[in-house]
Design a protein that fits this description.
It is built from twelve helices and 13 strands. The protein is an alpha/beta fold. It folds into two domains: 129 residues, Alpha-Beta Complex (Aspartate Aminotransferase, domain 1); 205 residues, Aspartate Aminotransferase, domain 2 (3-Layer(aba) Sandwich). Strand 5, helix 7 and strand 6 form a beta-alpha-beta unit. Helix 4 packs parallel to helix 5. The radius of gyration is 21 Å and the shape is globular.
Length: 354
């Protein structure tokens, strides 16, 4: 018996998301915060966790945390749902909506999990290439909306891996033209100083995703879906009852208790990003792009497969994006702490001088 034939064709035909563990002294590939909690705050958090009854299930739906973050984002309690990272919320959206003949539209390049989860859920994926300036190709996207009527459109704001914020005017036009739901993923929004949350009052088919993964708490896997109460109510039926463990709920509350510390770290990352960007601009053959995120996207005049390999040998791990098309010889480096940034710059300069 060939058990593989029991697997969905859409699953068999895709590669899946790879998150390889590679030993490194400077891990700058996954867009995580380079800062851990200060020792005193870490002790305070762990002291709180000692009071958790590990033999009991977590609060289903995380009602206290949902209420607190609704206040933080300035929305009603019934407009927010919490997921085990944004990935679970993307999966819930793809699982709940219509049927396997539905179309999910994504610009490319963008966060690969949109396509992977949509395909695994049985949806057809309509990919629309970005413009030459890495903004949305509005005429092309409007054409696909008219032709395919996508039930879901995913827009990363800022976009990964290109690090820029798409035109707000173009996003609004896409929302207005869509008969389906438009999901604006603001995973990196803290580093852009921008949000489309105010548009929720104007558009009933807009959903916004938030996360704590990029601002210092990647380990707790905490994501937020914000949208119309009627939609959130239906999506909540698909959410698994105990999807957010108690330890993560406590840590998320701790984030709000000490928001100034986390915002201070975000400010440090933004300042380091600008320093790193200016330094990369001075390296011959390296062409960095403006960044609204906690990483820098850059193209190169040389083979990045070779450079990536040499950097990895030196213990510097960044993201090699090299593939045919617009990502040919492109890379992405997460903004690290100042020591990591200096090590990366020193090492890549040394490699390029060989």
């Amino acid at each position: 018996m060939d058990l593989i034939t029991l697997i969905k064709k859409e699953v068999r035909e895709q590669e899946g998301y790879r998150a390889d563990i590679v030993p490194s002294r400077a891990k700058m590939d996954a867009n995580e915060s380079p800062f851990s909690l200060p020792s005193a705050l870490k002790k305070e958090l762990f002291d709180k966790m000692q009071n958790i009854s590990l033999n009991r299930y977590p609060e289903p739906g995380a009602p206290l945390i949902r209420k607190r973050f609704a206040g933080y984002y300035g929305v009603a309690d019934d407009m927010i749902m919490i997921g085990n990272g944004s990935d679970e919320l993307i999966q819930i959206l793809c699982t709940a909506l219509v049927n396997s003949s539905s179309v999910v539209m994504v610009p490319v390049p963008t966060f690969v999990m949109y396509k992977i989860i949509a395909s695994s859920s049985g949806h057809r994926v309509a990919e629309v290439p970005l413009s030459t300036s890495f903004d949305l190709d509005l005429p092309a996207m409007l054409s696909r909306i008219a032709e395919d009527a996508p039930v879901l459109t995913f827009l990363s704001y800022p976009n990964s891996p290109t690090s820029n914020c798409f035109s707000e005017k173009s996003i609004a036009t896409i929302i207005e033209a869509s008969r389906g739901i438009v999901v604006v993923d603001e995973a990196y929004g803290s580093f852009a100083g921008k949000t489309l949350l105010p548009l929720l009052k104007k558009y009933e088919n807009l959903v916004i995703l938030k996360t704590l993964s990029k601002v210092g708490l990647a380990a707790i896997r905490m994501g937020f879906l914000i949208g119309p109460p009627t939609l959130v109510r239906e999506l909540d039926k698909v959410r698994l009852p105990y999807n957010i463990n108690t330890l993560s709920q406590v840590a998320a509350g701790f984030y709000l208790d000490h928001i100034d510390t986390f915002l201070g770290q975000t400010g440090d990352i933004i300042a380091s990003r600008e320093e790193l960007l200016r330094a990369l601009e001075k390296i011959r053959g390296v062409h960095p792009y403006h960044s609204d995120a906690n990483f820098i996207f850059f193209s190169c005049d040389f083979d990045t497969d070779h450079i990536y390999s040499l950097l990895a040998q030196e213990g510097i791990l960044i993201k090699n994006l090299n593939s045919p098309g617009v990502l040919k010889n492109c890379m992405r480096v997460t903004v690290g702490n100042r020591e990591e940034n200096q090590e990366f710059l020193k090492t890549i300069k040394k490699i390029l001088l060989k």
